[in-house]
Automatic annotation (TrEMBL):
It comes from Thalassobaculum litoreum DSM 18839. InterPro entries: A-D-PHexomutase_a/b/a-I, A-D-PHexomutase_a/b/a-I/II/III, A-D-PHexomutase_a/b/a-II, A-D-PHexomutase_a/b/a-III, A-D-PHexomutase_C_sf, A-D-PHexomutase_CS, Alpha-D-phosphohexomutase_SF, PGM. Its EC number is 5.4.2.2. One of its GO terms (molecular function) is phosphoglucomutase activity. Its cofactor is Mg(2+). GO terms for biological process: carbohydrate metabolic process. Keywords: Isomerase, Magnesium, Metal-binding, Phosphoprotein. The lineage of its organism: Bacteria, Pseudomonadati, Pseudomonadota, Alphaproteobacteria, Rhodospirillales. Residues 14-153, 185-286, 295-407 form the Alpha-D-phosphohexomutase alpha/beta/alpha domain. One of its GO terms (cellular component) is cytosol. Belongs to the phosphohexose mutase family. This is phosphoglucomutase (alpha-D-glucose-1,6-bisphosphate-dependent). PANTHER family: PHOSPHOGLUCOMUTASE, PHOSPHOHEXOMUTASE FAMILY MEMBER.
Amino acid sequence: MTVKTIATKPFDGQKPGTSGLRAKTTVFMQPNYLENFVQSVFDTVGPLTGMTLTLGGDGRFFNSQAIQTILKMAAANGAARVVVGRDGLLSTPAASAVIRHRKTDGGLILSASHNPGGETGDFGIKYNIPAGGPAPESITGAIHARTAEITEYRILDAADIDLTRDGETDLGGMAVEVIDPVAIYAELMRSLFDFDAIRALFASRFRMRFDAMHAVTGPYATSILENELGAPSGTVINGTPLPDFGGGHPDPNPVYAAALMAEMFSADAPDFGAASDGDGDRNMIVGRNTYVTPSDSLAVLAANAHLAPGYADGIAGVARSMPTSRAADRVAEKLGVEAFATPTGWKFFGTLLDAGRVTICGEESAGTGSSHVREKDGLWAVLLWLNVLAAKKMSVADVMAEHWATYGRDYYSRHDYEEVDKAAAEALMDDLRSALADLPGQTVEGLTVTEADDFAYTDPVDGSTASKQGIRIVFGDAARAVLRLSGTGTVGATLRVYLERFEPDPAGQGEDPQTALSQVIAAVETLAGIRDRLGRTEPDVRT
Ligand code: VG1
Ligand code: CO
Protein backbone atom coordinates (compact mmCIF):
# COMPACT_ATOMS: atom_id res chain seq x y z
CA MET A 1 0.00 0.00 0.00
CA THR A 2 1.41 3.34 -0.95
CA VAL A 3 0.88 6.79 0.44
CA LYS A 4 -0.22 9.23 -2.21
CA THR A 5 0.37 12.95 -1.87
CA ILE A 6 -2.35 14.79 -3.74
CA ALA A 7 -2.02 18.44 -4.80
CA THR A 8 -5.00 20.56 -3.84
CA LYS A 9 -6.21 24.16 -3.62
CA PRO A 10 -8.04 25.83 -0.72
CA PHE A 11 -11.83 26.08 -0.67
CA ASP A 12 -13.37 29.27 0.63
CA GLY A 13 -15.40 29.16 3.79
CA GLN A 14 -14.12 26.02 5.53
CA LYS A 15 -14.80 27.78 8.80
CA PRO A 16 -16.29 25.75 11.65
CA GLY A 17 -19.41 27.42 13.06
CA THR A 18 -21.34 26.84 16.28
CA SER A 19 -20.60 23.13 16.01
CA GLY A 20 -18.10 22.13 13.35
CA LEU A 21 -18.01 22.63 9.59
CA ARG A 22 -21.39 22.22 7.93
CA ALA A 23 -22.29 22.46 4.27
CA LYS A 24 -24.58 20.92 1.70
CA THR A 25 -23.78 17.24 1.15
CA THR A 26 -23.02 18.01 -2.50
CA VAL A 27 -20.44 20.57 -1.39
CA PHE A 28 -18.77 17.98 0.85
CA MET A 29 -18.77 15.44 -1.98
CA GLN A 30 -16.77 17.65 -4.34
CA PRO A 31 -13.31 16.22 -4.97
CA ASN A 32 -10.88 17.27 -2.21
CA TYR A 33 -13.40 19.22 -0.07
CA LEU A 34 -13.54 16.74 2.80
CA GLU A 35 -9.90 15.80 2.30
CA ASN A 36 -8.72 19.42 2.57
CA PHE A 37 -10.53 19.91 5.85
CA VAL A 38 -9.37 16.63 7.34
CA GLN A 39 -5.74 17.27 6.36
CA SER A 40 -6.04 20.74 7.89
CA VAL A 41 -7.24 19.16 11.15
CA PHE A 42 -4.35 16.69 11.07
CA ASP A 43 -1.84 19.47 10.32
CA THR A 44 -3.23 21.50 13.23
CA VAL A 45 -3.42 18.80 15.90
CA GLY A 46 -0.67 16.54 14.50
CA PRO A 47 1.73 15.17 13.54
CA LEU A 48 -0.41 12.10 14.08
CA THR A 49 2.55 9.79 14.59
CA GLY A 50 1.72 7.40 17.41
CA MET A 51 -1.73 8.92 17.96
CA THR A 52 -5.06 7.15 18.42
CA LEU A 53 -8.22 8.80 17.15
CA THR A 54 -11.92 8.10 17.62
CA LEU A 55 -14.09 8.19 14.50
CA GLY A 56 -17.80 7.90 13.83
CA GLY A 57 -20.84 9.68 12.54
CA ASP A 58 -24.61 9.82 12.59
CA GLY A 59 -25.05 7.61 9.55
CA ARG A 60 -26.31 10.26 7.18
CA PHE A 61 -25.71 10.11 3.43
CA PHE A 62 -21.94 10.18 2.62
CA ASN A 63 -21.09 8.98 6.17
CA SER A 64 -19.66 5.61 5.06
CA GLN A 65 -17.66 7.07 2.21
CA ALA A 66 -16.27 9.86 4.36
CA ILE A 67 -15.25 7.36 7.07
CA GLN A 68 -13.26 5.32 4.53
CA THR A 69 -11.52 8.45 3.25
CA ILE A 70 -10.63 9.60 6.76
CA LEU A 71 -9.27 6.17 7.73
CA LYS A 72 -6.97 6.14 4.68
CA MET A 73 -5.85 9.70 5.41
CA ALA A 74 -5.19 8.96 9.09
CA ALA A 75 -3.09 5.96 8.05
CA ALA A 76 -1.17 8.03 5.50
CA ASN A 77 -0.54 10.67 8.17
CA GLY A 78 1.02 8.12 10.50
CA ALA A 79 -1.71 7.56 13.10
CA ALA A 80 -1.21 4.43 15.19
CA ARG A 81 -4.85 3.52 15.64
CA VAL A 82 -8.38 4.64 14.87
CA VAL A 83 -11.26 3.44 17.03
CA VAL A 84 -14.34 3.49 14.84
CA GLY A 85 -17.98 2.68 15.55
CA ARG A 86 -19.39 -0.36 13.76
CA ASP A 87 -20.88 0.66 10.39
CA GLY A 88 -19.23 4.02 10.95
CA LEU A 89 -21.82 4.94 13.57
CA LEU A 90 -21.28 6.84 16.80
CA SER A 91 -23.69 9.32 18.31
CA THR A 92 -22.01 12.58 19.30
CA PRO A 93 -22.23 11.88 23.06
CA ALA A 94 -21.05 8.29 22.49
CA ALA A 95 -18.06 9.57 20.52
CA SER A 96 -17.24 11.86 23.44
CA ALA A 97 -17.58 8.90 25.82
CA VAL A 98 -15.28 6.75 23.65
CA ILE A 99 -12.65 9.51 23.43
CA ARG A 100 -12.64 9.79 27.21
CA HIS A 101 -12.93 6.10 28.06
CA ARG A 102 -10.27 4.99 25.59
CA LYS A 103 -8.18 8.13 26.23
CA THR A 104 -7.76 8.72 22.51
CA ASP A 105 -6.04 11.81 21.16
CA GLY A 106 -9.36 13.35 20.22
CA GLY A 107 -11.65 12.31 17.42
CA LEU A 108 -13.60 13.23 14.34
CA ILE A 109 -17.39 13.25 14.37
CA LEU A 110 -19.30 13.28 11.10
CA SER A 111 -22.63 14.97 11.45
CA ALA A 112 -24.68 18.00 10.59
CA SER A 113 -26.67 17.19 13.71
CA HIS A 114 -30.20 18.59 13.58
CA ASN A 115 -29.90 19.63 9.91
CA PRO A 116 -31.68 17.40 7.37
CA GLY A 117 -29.51 14.80 5.63
CA GLY A 118 -29.49 12.95 2.34
CA GLU A 119 -28.06 13.89 -1.02
CA THR A 120 -29.95 17.19 -1.00
CA GLY A 121 -29.41 17.79 2.73
CA ASP A 122 -26.42 18.73 4.82
CA PHE A 123 -23.21 17.06 5.94
CA GLY A 124 -20.74 18.11 8.59
CA ILE A 125 -17.57 17.27 10.44
CA LYS A 126 -15.95 18.39 13.65
CA TYR A 127 -12.85 17.68 15.63
CA ASN A 128 -13.16 16.92 19.35
CA ILE A 129 -10.24 17.34 21.71
CA PRO A 130 -8.82 14.61 24.00
CA ALA A 131 -11.07 15.80 26.86
CA GLY A 132 -13.93 14.66 24.62
CA GLY A 133 -15.48 18.02 23.79
CA PRO A 134 -15.75 20.14 20.68
CA ALA A 135 -12.52 21.97 19.88
CA PRO A 136 -12.39 25.48 21.36
CA GLU A 137 -12.21 28.46 19.04
CA SER A 138 -8.43 28.69 19.35
CA ILE A 139 -8.19 25.30 17.61
CA THR A 140 -11.04 25.74 15.12
CA GLY A 141 -9.51 29.09 14.17
CA ALA A 142 -6.15 27.43 13.50
CA ILE A 143 -7.86 24.70 11.46
CA HIS A 144 -9.66 27.32 9.41
CA ALA A 145 -6.41 29.22 8.83
CA ARG A 146 -4.81 25.99 7.65
CA THR A 147 -7.64 25.32 5.16
CA ALA A 148 -6.84 28.67 3.56
CA GLU A 149 -3.25 27.71 2.76
CA ILE A 150 -3.41 23.99 2.12
CA THR A 151 -1.56 22.72 -0.98
CA GLU A 152 -1.60 18.95 -0.55
CA TYR A 153 -3.03 16.08 1.43
CA ARG A 154 -1.91 12.53 2.09
CA ILE A 155 -4.00 9.41 1.55
CA LEU A 156 -3.29 5.71 1.45
CA ASP A 157 -3.96 3.90 -1.80
CA ALA A 158 -5.92 0.99 -0.33
CA ALA A 159 -9.18 -0.89 -0.56
CA ASP A 160 -12.07 0.03 1.74
CA ILE A 161 -12.09 -1.56 5.20
CA ASP A 162 -14.97 -3.79 6.29
CA LEU A 163 -16.63 -1.91 9.16
CA THR A 164 -19.55 -4.26 9.63
CA ARG A 165 -17.78 -6.54 12.13
CA ASP A 166 -16.13 -5.69 15.46
CA GLY A 167 -12.40 -6.34 15.63
CA GLU A 168 -9.07 -5.09 14.43
CA THR A 169 -7.66 -4.75 10.90
CA ASP A 170 -4.33 -3.41 9.70
CA LEU A 171 -4.46 -0.50 7.30
CA GLY A 172 -0.96 0.32 6.06
CA GLY A 173 0.53 -0.04 9.53
CA MET A 174 -2.36 1.65 11.34
CA ALA A 175 -4.80 -0.40 13.40
CA VAL A 176 -8.47 0.08 12.57
CA GLU A 177 -10.45 -1.06 15.58
CA VAL A 178 -14.16 -1.51 14.98
CA ILE A 179 -16.20 -1.30 18.19
CA ASP A 180 -19.82 -1.70 19.22
CA PRO A 181 -21.09 1.91 19.06
CA VAL A 182 -23.35 1.42 22.09
CA ALA A 183 -21.31 -0.58 24.65
CA ILE A 184 -19.05 2.07 26.20
CA TYR A 185 -21.90 4.58 26.28
CA ALA A 186 -24.35 2.11 27.85
CA GLU A 187 -21.81 1.23 30.54
CA LEU A 188 -21.47 4.91 31.39
CA MET A 189 -25.26 5.31 31.65
CA ARG A 190 -25.42 2.28 33.97
CA SER A 191 -22.89 3.97 36.26
CA LEU A 192 -24.97 7.15 36.55
CA PHE A 193 -28.59 6.05 36.87
CA ASP A 194 -30.70 3.79 39.02
CA PHE A 195 -31.48 1.25 36.33
CA ASP A 196 -33.40 -0.94 38.82
CA ALA A 197 -35.76 1.90 39.66
CA ILE A 198 -36.31 2.67 35.97
CA ARG A 199 -36.84 -1.04 35.28
CA ALA A 200 -39.47 -1.08 38.03
CA LEU A 201 -41.10 1.96 36.48
CA PHE A 202 -41.42 0.19 33.13
CA ALA A 203 -42.69 -2.92 34.89
CA SER A 204 -45.55 -0.83 36.30
CA ARG A 205 -48.15 0.66 33.96
CA PHE A 206 -45.81 3.47 32.89
CA ARG A 207 -45.72 3.92 29.13
CA MET A 208 -43.19 5.81 27.07
CA ARG A 209 -42.61 6.75 23.44
CA PHE A 210 -39.12 7.58 22.18
CA ASP A 211 -38.90 9.01 18.67
CA ALA A 212 -35.42 8.42 17.26
CA MET A 213 -36.43 10.28 14.10
CA HIS A 214 -34.62 7.67 11.94
CA ALA A 215 -31.37 9.09 13.26
CA VAL A 216 -28.46 7.72 15.25
CA THR A 217 -30.10 7.27 18.68
CA GLY A 218 -32.25 4.39 17.41
CA PRO A 219 -29.73 1.65 18.28
CA TYR A 220 -28.85 3.32 21.59
CA ALA A 221 -32.44 3.80 22.70
CA THR A 222 -33.51 0.31 21.62
CA SER A 223 -30.59 -1.30 23.40
CA ILE A 224 -30.90 0.68 26.63
CA LEU A 225 -34.63 1.40 26.97
CA GLU A 226 -36.12 -1.75 25.47
CA ASN A 227 -33.48 -4.45 25.82
CA GLU A 228 -31.99 -3.43 29.14
CA LEU A 229 -34.63 -1.45 31.01
CA GLY A 230 -37.56 -3.55 29.88
CA ALA A 231 -39.62 -0.93 28.07
CA PRO A 232 -42.03 -2.81 25.78
CA SER A 233 -40.87 -3.23 22.23
CA GLY A 234 -42.35 -0.46 20.13
CA THR A 235 -41.46 2.11 22.79
CA VAL A 236 -38.77 3.31 20.40
CA ILE A 237 -40.19 4.45 17.08
CA ASN A 238 -38.33 5.39 13.89
CA GLY A 239 -35.43 3.47 15.42
CA THR A 240 -33.53 2.51 12.28
CA PRO A 241 -30.98 5.13 11.22
CA LEU A 242 -31.55 6.08 7.58
CA PRO A 243 -29.16 8.07 5.35
CA ASP A 244 -31.83 10.72 4.79
CA PHE A 245 -33.59 10.32 8.18
CA GLY A 246 -36.62 9.12 6.25
CA GLY A 247 -36.89 12.52 4.59
CA GLY A 248 -37.54 14.20 7.95
CA HIS A 249 -35.87 17.08 9.72
CA PRO A 250 -34.14 15.38 12.67
CA ASP A 251 -34.60 18.26 15.07
CA PRO A 252 -36.60 17.34 18.18
CA ASN A 253 -38.89 20.32 18.56
CA PRO A 254 -42.68 20.60 18.51
CA VAL A 255 -42.69 21.44 14.80
CA TYR A 256 -40.35 18.78 13.42
CA ALA A 257 -41.39 16.09 15.93
CA ALA A 258 -45.06 16.81 15.25
CA ALA A 259 -46.16 13.16 15.27
CA LEU A 260 -44.78 12.61 18.78
CA MET A 261 -46.39 15.85 19.97
CA ALA A 262 -49.74 14.75 18.54
CA GLU A 263 -49.51 11.42 20.33
CA MET A 264 -48.53 13.05 23.63
CA PHE A 265 -51.50 15.38 23.45
CA SER A 266 -53.99 12.67 22.38
CA ALA A 267 -56.60 10.94 24.54
CA ASP A 268 -54.46 7.81 24.79
CA ALA A 269 -51.15 9.58 25.41
CA PRO A 270 -48.29 7.66 27.06
CA ASP A 271 -46.88 8.96 30.35
CA PHE A 272 -43.64 10.15 28.87
CA GLY A 273 -42.38 11.09 25.43
CA ALA A 274 -38.95 12.01 24.14
CA ALA A 275 -37.13 12.54 20.89
CA SER A 276 -33.54 13.06 19.84
CA ASP A 277 -31.80 14.65 16.87
CA GLY A 278 -29.61 13.46 14.00
CA ASP A 279 -26.48 12.86 16.06
CA GLY A 280 -28.15 12.09 19.39
CA ASP A 281 -27.04 15.05 21.43
CA ARG A 282 -30.40 16.85 21.68
CA ASN A 283 -33.51 15.84 23.54
CA MET A 284 -37.14 16.86 23.61
CA ILE A 285 -39.11 15.99 26.74
CA VAL A 286 -42.90 15.75 26.69
CA GLY A 287 -45.26 14.50 29.37
CA ARG A 288 -48.89 13.60 28.81
CA ASN A 289 -50.40 16.90 27.62
CA THR A 290 -47.25 18.66 28.81
CA TYR A 291 -44.44 19.99 26.65
CA VAL A 292 -41.34 20.72 28.72
CA THR A 293 -39.42 23.67 27.41
CA PRO A 294 -35.69 22.82 27.23
CA SER A 295 -34.80 25.71 29.55
CA ASP A 296 -37.21 24.30 32.14
CA SER A 297 -35.87 20.80 31.59
CA LEU A 298 -32.39 22.04 32.45
CA ALA A 299 -33.69 23.64 35.64
CA VAL A 300 -35.68 20.55 36.66
CA LEU A 301 -32.72 18.26 36.04
CA ALA A 302 -30.37 20.52 37.99
CA ALA A 303 -32.83 20.62 40.90
CA ASN A 304 -33.35 16.85 40.92
CA ALA A 305 -30.04 15.40 39.71
CA HIS A 306 -29.21 14.24 43.26
CA LEU A 307 -31.96 11.62 42.88
CA ALA A 308 -29.70 9.73 40.45
CA PRO A 309 -26.80 7.76 41.95
CA GLY A 310 -24.21 9.45 39.72
CA TYR A 311 -25.11 12.85 41.19
CA ALA A 312 -26.06 11.79 44.72
CA ASP A 313 -23.36 14.01 46.21
CA GLY A 314 -24.90 17.08 44.61
CA ILE A 315 -23.77 19.23 41.73
CA ALA A 316 -20.87 21.68 41.60
CA GLY A 317 -22.62 24.30 39.49
CA VAL A 318 -24.86 24.90 36.50
CA ALA A 319 -24.02 26.51 33.16
CA ARG A 320 -26.47 27.58 30.49
CA SER A 321 -26.04 29.31 27.18
CA MET A 322 -26.94 32.99 27.48
CA PRO A 323 -30.19 32.77 25.44
CA THR A 324 -31.42 29.91 27.66
CA SER A 325 -33.94 31.11 30.24
CA ARG A 326 -32.81 32.07 33.70
CA ALA A 327 -34.76 29.22 35.32
CA ALA A 328 -31.56 27.26 35.99
CA ASP A 329 -29.98 30.25 37.73
CA ARG A 330 -32.70 30.22 40.37
CA VAL A 331 -32.07 26.53 41.04
CA ALA A 332 -28.34 27.18 41.39
CA GLU A 333 -29.04 30.01 43.80
CA LYS A 334 -31.21 27.79 45.97
CA LEU A 335 -28.61 25.01 45.89
CA GLY A 336 -25.89 27.53 46.74
CA VAL A 337 -23.78 26.61 43.71
CA GLU A 338 -22.28 28.69 40.92
CA ALA A 339 -24.27 29.58 37.79
CA PHE A 340 -22.72 30.60 34.47
CA ALA A 341 -24.06 32.02 31.22
CA THR A 342 -21.92 31.23 28.18
CA PRO A 343 -22.21 31.91 24.45
CA THR A 344 -24.27 29.49 22.36
CA GLY A 345 -22.54 26.20 21.52
CA TRP A 346 -21.37 23.33 23.68
CA LYS A 347 -17.68 24.15 23.17
CA PHE A 348 -18.04 27.00 25.69
CA PHE A 349 -18.91 24.59 28.53
CA GLY A 350 -15.68 22.59 28.21
CA THR A 351 -13.42 24.67 30.42
CA LEU A 352 -16.02 24.92 33.20
CA LEU A 353 -16.62 21.15 33.13
CA ASP A 354 -12.89 20.37 33.04
CA ALA A 355 -12.27 22.69 35.98
CA GLY A 356 -15.04 21.03 38.00
CA ARG A 357 -16.90 24.32 38.33
CA VAL A 358 -20.13 22.90 36.86
CA THR A 359 -21.78 19.48 36.70
CA ILE A 360 -24.90 20.20 34.64
CA CYS A 361 -25.06 22.28 31.46
CA GLY A 362 -27.82 23.12 29.04
CA GLU A 363 -29.05 25.09 26.10
CA GLU A 364 -32.54 26.21 25.14
CA SER A 365 -32.06 24.35 21.85
CA ALA A 366 -32.84 21.02 23.53
CA GLY A 367 -29.30 20.32 24.64
CA THR A 368 -28.67 19.08 28.17
CA GLY A 369 -25.69 17.26 29.56
CA SER A 370 -23.28 16.83 32.41
CA SER A 371 -19.67 16.23 33.30
CA HIS A 372 -19.99 12.54 32.28
CA VAL A 373 -18.96 13.54 28.74
CA ARG A 374 -18.10 16.82 27.03
CA GLU A 375 -21.06 16.98 24.65
CA LYS A 376 -24.73 17.47 25.23
CA ASP A 377 -26.40 14.11 25.50
CA GLY A 378 -29.96 13.39 24.43
CA LEU A 379 -30.44 9.92 25.86
CA TRP A 380 -28.70 10.91 29.08
CA ALA A 381 -31.34 13.62 29.62
CA VAL A 382 -34.10 11.11 28.92
CA LEU A 383 -32.63 8.63 31.41
CA LEU A 384 -32.21 11.30 34.06
CA TRP A 385 -35.85 12.31 33.58
CA LEU A 386 -36.87 8.65 33.91
CA ASN A 387 -34.76 8.36 37.06
CA VAL A 388 -36.39 11.49 38.49
CA LEU A 389 -39.91 10.28 37.61
CA ALA A 390 -39.15 6.88 39.15
CA ALA A 391 -37.83 8.45 42.34
CA LYS A 392 -40.52 11.10 42.73
CA LYS A 393 -43.36 8.84 41.57
CA MET A 394 -44.97 11.85 39.91
CA SER A 395 -46.20 12.69 36.43
CA VAL A 396 -44.27 15.13 34.25
CA ALA A 397 -47.09 17.68 34.64
CA ASP A 398 -46.91 17.41 38.44
CA VAL A 399 -43.11 17.71 38.44
CA MET A 400 -43.43 20.91 36.39
CA ALA A 401 -46.19 22.35 38.60
CA GLU A 402 -44.15 21.63 41.71
CA HIS A 403 -41.04 23.15 40.16
CA TRP A 404 -42.83 26.35 39.13
CA ALA A 405 -44.52 26.64 42.52
CA THR A 406 -41.08 26.52 44.15
CA TYR A 407 -39.01 28.60 41.74
CA GLY A 408 -41.52 30.52 39.64
CA ARG A 409 -42.14 29.92 35.96
CA ASP A 410 -40.09 31.34 33.13
CA TYR A 411 -42.40 31.45 30.14
CA TYR A 412 -40.13 30.76 27.21
CA SER A 413 -40.22 30.38 23.46
CA ARG A 414 -37.79 30.63 20.56
CA HIS A 415 -39.00 31.87 17.21
CA ASP A 416 -36.87 30.82 14.23
CA TYR A 417 -37.00 32.42 10.82
CA GLU A 418 -35.17 29.87 8.71
CA GLU A 419 -33.31 30.31 5.42
CA VAL A 420 -34.06 33.99 5.11
CA ASP A 421 -32.08 36.41 2.97
CA LYS A 422 -28.63 36.67 4.50
CA ALA A 423 -28.01 40.33 3.70
CA ALA A 424 -31.42 41.32 5.08
CA ALA A 425 -30.84 39.36 8.30
CA GLU A 426 -27.39 40.85 8.77
CA ALA A 427 -28.73 44.35 8.17
CA LEU A 428 -31.46 43.76 10.74
CA MET A 429 -28.87 42.74 13.32
CA ASP A 430 -26.49 45.58 12.42
CA ASP A 431 -29.19 48.22 12.68
CA LEU A 432 -30.40 46.89 15.99
CA ARG A 433 -26.84 46.78 17.25
CA SER A 434 -26.24 50.41 16.37
CA ALA A 435 -29.46 51.40 18.15
CA LEU A 436 -28.62 49.59 21.39
CA ALA A 437 -27.20 52.58 23.23
CA ASP A 438 -30.44 54.52 22.78
CA LEU A 439 -32.81 51.77 23.88
CA PRO A 440 -32.65 51.91 27.69
CA GLY A 441 -35.48 54.08 28.97
CA GLN A 442 -37.63 53.63 25.86
CA THR A 443 -41.07 52.11 26.32
CA VAL A 444 -42.16 49.74 23.57
CA GLU A 445 -45.53 47.99 23.51
CA GLY A 446 -45.92 48.78 27.20
CA LEU A 447 -42.52 47.37 28.18
CA THR A 448 -39.63 49.58 29.23
CA VAL A 449 -36.14 48.63 28.10
CA THR A 450 -33.80 48.62 31.07
CA GLU A 451 -30.68 47.20 29.43
CA ALA A 452 -29.58 46.45 25.89
CA ASP A 453 -26.24 45.02 24.78
CA ASP A 454 -24.46 42.61 22.49
CA PHE A 455 -23.34 39.68 24.63
CA ALA A 456 -19.59 39.40 25.13
CA TYR A 457 -18.01 36.64 27.18
CA THR A 458 -14.76 36.13 29.00
CA ASP A 459 -14.20 32.50 29.94
CA PRO A 460 -13.78 32.45 33.74
CA VAL A 461 -11.32 29.56 33.53
CA ASP A 462 -8.93 30.34 30.66
CA GLY A 463 -9.70 34.00 30.02
CA SER A 464 -10.50 33.50 26.33
CA THR A 465 -13.04 35.93 24.93
CA ALA A 466 -15.94 35.89 22.49
CA SER A 467 -17.88 38.91 21.29
CA LYS A 468 -21.09 39.61 19.33
CA GLN A 469 -22.77 36.54 20.76
CA GLY A 470 -26.35 37.82 20.68
CA ILE A 471 -28.28 41.03 21.16
CA ARG A 472 -29.98 41.19 24.55
CA ILE A 473 -32.90 43.48 25.23
CA VAL A 474 -33.96 43.38 28.85
CA PHE A 475 -37.30 44.71 30.06
CA GLY A 476 -36.97 45.01 33.82
CA ASP A 477 -36.64 42.00 36.10
CA ALA A 478 -39.10 39.78 34.31
CA ALA A 479 -38.90 39.99 30.55
CA ARG A 480 -36.09 39.60 28.06
CA ALA A 481 -35.55 39.08 24.35
CA VAL A 482 -32.38 37.89 22.63
CA LEU A 483 -31.70 37.94 18.90
CA ARG A 484 -28.89 36.14 17.11
CA LEU A 485 -28.09 34.57 13.77
CA SER A 486 -27.57 30.83 13.61
CA GLY A 487 -24.10 29.43 13.09
CA THR A 488 -25.20 25.97 11.96
CA GLY A 489 -27.33 26.69 8.89
CA THR A 490 -26.07 26.15 5.36
CA VAL A 491 -28.52 28.20 3.29
CA GLY A 492 -29.09 31.95 3.67
CA ALA A 493 -29.41 32.95 7.31
CA THR A 494 -31.57 31.83 10.20
CA LEU A 495 -32.70 34.44 12.72
CA ARG A 496 -33.38 33.14 16.20
CA VAL A 497 -35.47 35.26 18.55
CA TYR A 498 -35.45 34.06 22.15
CA LEU A 499 -38.30 35.28 24.33
CA GLU A 500 -38.92 34.95 28.04
CA ARG A 501 -40.95 36.32 30.91
CA PHE A 502 -40.81 35.35 34.57
CA GLU A 503 -44.01 34.65 36.50
CA PRO A 504 -43.51 34.02 40.22
CA ASP A 505 -47.22 33.69 41.07
CA PRO A 506 -48.64 30.15 40.71
CA ALA A 507 -52.02 31.71 39.85
CA GLY A 508 -50.49 33.14 36.68
CA GLN A 509 -48.47 30.10 35.65
CA GLY A 510 -51.07 28.28 33.56
CA GLU A 511 -51.05 30.40 30.41
CA ASP A 512 -50.08 29.36 26.92
CA PRO A 513 -46.48 30.60 26.49
CA GLN A 514 -47.24 32.40 23.20
CA THR A 515 -50.00 34.34 24.97
CA ALA A 516 -47.91 34.97 28.06
CA LEU A 517 -45.12 36.28 25.84
CA SER A 518 -47.27 38.33 23.47
CA GLN A 519 -46.07 41.68 24.79
CA VAL A 520 -42.40 40.70 24.45
CA ILE A 521 -43.08 39.34 20.95
CA ALA A 522 -44.74 42.61 19.95
CA ALA A 523 -41.91 44.68 21.43
CA VAL A 524 -39.29 42.76 19.45
CA GLU A 525 -41.30 43.19 16.26
CA THR A 526 -41.51 46.94 16.85
CA LEU A 527 -37.81 47.25 17.62
CA ALA A 528 -36.44 44.93 14.93
CA GLY A 529 -39.05 45.05 12.15
CA ILE A 530 -38.69 41.35 11.38
CA ARG A 531 -41.78 41.00 9.18
CA ASP A 532 -40.93 43.82 6.84
CA ARG A 533 -37.24 43.24 6.67
CA LEU A 534 -37.33 39.47 6.22
CA GLY A 535 -40.59 39.30 4.32
CA ARG A 536 -42.04 36.76 6.73
CA THR A 537 -45.32 36.93 8.60
CA GLU A 538 -44.68 33.95 10.85
CA PRO A 539 -41.67 32.15 12.27
CA ASP A 540 -40.96 28.68 10.82
CA VAL A 541 -40.46 27.19 14.26
CA ARG A 542 -41.78 28.12 17.69
CA THR A 543 -40.30 26.04 20.46
C1 VG1 B 1 -27.69 25.65 17.29
C2 VG1 B 1 -28.21 25.88 18.70
C3 VG1 B 1 -27.09 25.71 19.70
C4 VG1 B 1 -26.45 24.34 19.53
C5 VG1 B 1 -25.99 24.16 18.10
C6 VG1 B 1 -25.45 22.78 17.82
O1 VG1 B 1 -26.73 26.62 16.97
O2 VG1 B 1 -28.78 27.15 18.81
O3 VG1 B 1 -27.61 25.89 20.99
O4 VG1 B 1 -25.35 24.20 20.39
O5 VG1 B 1 -27.09 24.36 17.21
O6 VG1 B 1 -26.42 21.82 18.08
P1 VG1 B 1 -27.07 27.89 16.06
O7 VG1 B 1 -25.78 28.61 15.88
O8 VG1 B 1 -27.67 27.37 14.81
O9 VG1 B 1 -28.09 28.67 16.84
V1 VG1 B 1 -26.39 20.38 17.24
O10 VG1 B 1 -27.46 19.37 17.95
O11 VG1 B 1 -26.80 20.95 15.65
O12 VG1 B 1 -24.82 19.93 17.25
CO1 CO C 1 -27.07 17.50 17.50
